[in-house]
Design goal:
59 residues, elongated
Length: 59
């Protein structure tokens, strides 16, 4: 699986059926996904700020 690929699940994971190591791995993967989402938000906000500065803020 690609590191940039979002985690998708068709059914909820049964956390009580996962080992401690599996849970820790899942937490790490979720943290990585959150960090990627936050970076994408920052990038999009920067683009929006640049567009607002160039064209003026609508409204």
């Amino acid at each position: 699986m690609d590191d940039l690929e979002p985690i998708r699940s068709t059914r909820p994971q049964m956390l009580d059926e996962m080992s401690v190591d599996d849970l820790r791995a899942r937490i790490g993967a979720l943290r990585d996904e959150i960090a990627a989402c936050e970076a994408e938000i920052e990038k999009k906000e920067a683009h929006m700020s640049a567009a607002d500065a160039l064209f003026g803020k609508p409204g």
